[in-house]
Structures are given as C-alpha cells and as structure tokens.
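From the shared-data thread, chain only:
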Amino acid sequence: MSNLKQDKYNPDVVKKYETITRERENSTYIFSKQVYKGITNDFPNQIKSPDDLKIKASEPDFDLIKIRMEASIKEREREKAEQERLLKQMSEQKTQKKLVININKTSEVQETHQDMKDSQKKFNLEKEKSVLSDVLDFLKKI
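Structure, as tokens:
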C-alpha cells in the first residue's frame, strides 16, 4: 500500500505563504554599523572598534553618597522620634481612660440590667474605637 493519505491543499494558506516568500526574496538588507537598541541611548556616530561600544563607567561621587546617606539617617531618626512621641501619648491616654473607667466602676453601683446598659452608653466605646483606629491608620502611613 502506498501513501493512502493525500496532502491537503488549502488555497488561503498557500497564497499567504507564497506572498511571504516573495516579499522575503525581494527585500534587501543593508549592512550598517548603526547601533540597534542601545542600553544607554547613546548612539555613537562612528564605530571603529568594539571599545567604542563599551559603557564608560565614571567613578562614583562619594561626597554625594555620604550626604544622601546622612540625610536618610536623619529622616529615619526624626520618624522614630515622632513614632515614640505618638506611642507615649497613646499610652498616657490609655492609662487615663483606665483610671476613668475604674473610678466610674467603683463609684457607681449597677443593680439592674438597664443600669448596665445606661453605663455602657456613657463610655461611648465606638467613639474611642474610631479615635484609636485613626491613630493606628496614621501610624501605618508612617
């Protein structure tokens, strides 16, 4: 048995293939020494040796690096002092609120369920919660 399966013929594909091969045969490529896709976007006009294409690295400016590093250290110290101040302020507020809560609990005697509900409204915990969440959001941004 010889080849029972015949080659398939698709006129659209054959036409596209023929046009592509014709374009490839007719196109001409020009040899040039122009740089293609340079890294530094510095395209030299005359290239005579591979050394012309090397990236010239200059010496780093150590004074500028030192100034930037000192500025960043000062900024970090300032942020740290601000965070410590906020944390100290929050801890003071927390202790003051604990004292207020403890004073209220010892001075007031809650006998019924309704009295307990009313005392809960006095503390207004949701307001305190929103204030603390605002402070925490501020700390997260820092």
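The mean pLDDT is 77.
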